[in-house]
Design brief:
The radius of gyration is 22 Å and the shape is globular. The chain has 3 domains: 142 residues, Rossmann fold (3-Layer(aba) Sandwich); 85 residues, Udp-n-acetylmuramoylalanyl-d-glutamate--2,6- Diaminopimelate Ligase, Chain: A, domain 1, CATH 3.40.1390; 119 residues, CobE/GbiG C-terminal domain (Nucleotidyltransferase, domain 5, 2-Layer Sandwich). By secondary structure, the protein is an alpha/beta fold. Helix 8 crosses helix 9. The strands form 3 sheets. It has an 8-stranded mixed sheet with strand order 1-4-3-2-5-6-7-8, sandwiched between helices.
């Protein structure tokens, strides 16, 4: 609980780059929806609207006047998303404004989620692009009033944010962003992840070229590159990142079974080893899936929470509804299902074929699937 008192600095826990703040009943419902669909955002609202599941979802409750939290939020987050009236937000943030180079992006959403308004730091702070991303996530109307915002090109630092994509490194964001806005030749290679990242309703700018592989992009030579993949690049492929940004879409699903009491350290060690074998990035893991008998398994819960992965449990009947390659009578005897890791990975991912069907290592059994969008 964050207690807001005059003269006392509130203690918050930052997990994402953006803060979503609501203070009314309807605003809270919208904030929860946005926190779920727009990953990399921390949600804050008053404790009087507590529902009981806030801790599980990483939501932070506060008591007192939200005005007292703003100085800390302003310094902590890259962007602030308020579900509060525009006039009230202007009055709240006015004493905190310093410089457009350092002020965070500020957005306002109406209580019904119909409009997303870019308020502050539209260009340098990224509020305009963030407005488009949030509006897309809510199926709302983005409202941007800056006259210069007419290029409608890729926002390099926000690409795929609403899907939970993350960068491998932020080192090249600035030069690649400059190349995009200066209309230099840009290569885009997408091997996995959501395809609907371009949401302007018109063709890509002429300077942006799509290639089917990194090899093809390298042959055609570009000034900068955007690469979207869950794979670890080879030494030869890494040449594309000389002036490129590597995005990690959330497409890897881990089906896991384990003995009771298996530590999170052992579980993570098996995950790390398996991903190395497959040459997959851990940053692209989306979920751990298992049987509902393991819904309270501390090691699994800790591993999922630490890495901010979804934790999904299925009933034996759900698992048995999936055709698997390696059914086990022994597993059936103890769990009521012919398998755990294999059908769990298939159920969540929708994949017919797994990258690893079933691998046993110590107390852990793991299966790996890729979500194909």
């Amino acid at each position: 609980m964050i207690v807001l008192h005059e003269g006392q600095k509130p203690v918050i826990q930052q997990n994402g780059d953006y803060a979503v703040v609501a203070i009314t009943k309807h605003g809270v419902e919208l904030a929860r929806k946005l926190g779920h669909s727009f990953q990399n955002a921390d949600v804050f609202y008053p404790n009087k609207f507590e529902k009981g599941d806030e801790q599980a979802h990483g939501i932070q409750l506060f008591t007192g006047n939200v005005r007292l939290a703003l100085p800390v939020l302003f310094k902590t987050y890259k962007g602030l998303i308020f579900i509060i009236s525009l006039g009230a937000v202007v009055r709240l943030i006015a004493p905190l404004l310093k410089d457009k180079k350092t002020d965070p992006a500020v957005l306002v959403i109406d209580e019904k989620g119909k409009n997303v308004i870019s308020v502050l730091s539209g260009h340098i702070g990224g509020a305009n692009e963030l407005t488009k991303e949030v509006a897309s996530a809510l199926n709302a109307r983005p409202i941007i009033t800056t006259a210069a915002d007419v290029q409608e090109t890729i926002a390099v630092d926000l690409l795929g944010k609403r899907f939970g994509w993350v960068w491998d490194s932020a080192e090249k964001l600035t030069p690649v962003s400059a190349a995009v806005v200066n209309e230099e030749k840009i290569a885009v290679v997408q091997e996995s992840g959501e395809k609907e990242w371009w949401n302007y309703g018109r063709p890509l700018p002429e300077n942006i070229h799509l290639y089917s592989s990194i090899a093809e992009a390298l042959i055609n030579k570009s000034n900068a590159a955007l690469v979207i993949t869950h794979r670890t690049l080879t030494k030869e492929e890494n040449a594309i990142l000389h002036r490129g940004v590597l995005y990690r879409p959330k497409v890897i699903v881990l089906g896991i079974g384990c003995n009771r009491g298996t530590s999170s350290e052992e579980i993570e060690a098996v995950i790390d080893e398996t991903l190395r074998e497959l040459q997959f990035s851990k940053k692209s893991v989306k979920a751990i899936c298992t049987i509902d008998l393991k819904k309270d398994e501390a090691g699994l819960l800790e591993a999922a929470a630490k890495n901010r992965w979804e934790f999904i449990c299925y009933t034996p009947d759900e698992l048995n509804s999936v055709k698997i390659e390696e059914p086990s009578e022994t597993v059936l005897k103890f769990t009521g299902a012919y398998g755990v890791s294999e059908p769990a990975a298939k159920l969540y991912s929708g994949a017919d074929k797994l990258e690893i069907v079933k691998k046993k290592s110590g107390n852990v059994t793991i299966s790996v699937a890729i979500i194909r969008h």
